[in-house]
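Fold it.
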Amino acid sequence: MKKFLFALSAVTMAVNVNAAQLEHTNSMDVPSPTSLPVGFETVFQKSMDDPNVLFYYGAKAFENGQHDEALKWMLEASRYSFAPAVENVKHMVHHGLGSKANREGVVDFLTYFAQPRGAESADVFAQIYLADYYRGDSCVWLSPEEKATCVVEGSAEPLSATDLEKAYFYFEGAAQQGDQRSQYVTGMMNILGVGVPRNVPLGISYLKEIADNGQPNVAYIIGKIYQDGYWMVSDREIANTWFQKAISYSQHPKSTLETAKNFEAGVVGETESGRISNAVALYKNVLDSISATEEDKAEAAYRLGLIYTHYSQYRDQVKAIYYIERAVELSHTSSNEFGVKALVWLGDKEASSDLTLAVNHYLEAEKQLLSLPLNIQQRHAVVWQKLANAHASGQKDNMEKSTRDFAFYMNKYHRTMAKTHIPAKERASYEGFSAFTFPG
């Protein structure tokens, strides 16, 4: 009954009979008294060309909670550039209402509005959604609440197309219109060579505007690129200016750590005394930071231990041991190479006085090392050499066991070093920051 009333309303809205034409109709054309001069089917068909009618159907379906049906009608109405329908489609797509069932129609809608139309600019909303769709985001059609818990991997049915070149095209278009996330993504795609040939300087130019507007993580990314010489010549002085900018925004712990290393290395600062003093203060800031990662804190603690070991003005064995042991503690829950380094340092310290204790430290270092990637294992493979030498030195009265233990650990060392480290295919991220997720 409701559907009949909808249809009747549509007919009422669309019928516009020309009375003058009826009056002059030739008597031969006049239908019999049992039929109407204008049939229902004719008017109903014409009503389907009226965006007001299509909008009406969509609005009624939405009121009844029929979101798939509602979006279908709104998409039809939007084909006429009917502004209310266009706004409703964008609203429903944003909230994930009916998008899955009407995916093809939604993509057509977005594709049309993502292009400039005469004097009108391209629609940024359409560009961003299309960009995410083409980059392979299977969560793109969900509501904001659902997106927060969406798992991309393992989807039973792919909900998006993967075309990174198209994704870049639309992200770049939105970036040029000032959308900050699109500027970030466009910059990162250039830096990482994702969907576009790698162009680090161009990528940095996109990121600089965001970093200058108070985004510490983006300032850190720029600094790290210069610091490491990522696909460009390293310039630690320029890197330090970006780290300082990040620190000025939020006491950024990663930038603080990198700045401390630059002070210690003599990149900034004039006298050794002043440089090391600044480095110590910054390393301690990292240790006290509530937002620093355990690995960042472990590195800061380890480097403090070395400062209290090697620099005459700070030489203090008690403090050195304290910070080295702190680095080990910070590596218990999540192994990292600074925990390994700290354990080797402790082992070396005990090797001349308590070989058993030294071996225990080396064994703990080996345990952590085995949980780390191969390239880090190879970088610290000296652990097995130290274990081999320690066992050989401690078994002088048992040459057979000495030889066996020495061979066992040296074999581990050589097998590790003989392996070929094949880096994993570079993902769309840098220093833990995803190219597609704005680091707010």
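The chain has 23 helices and two strands.
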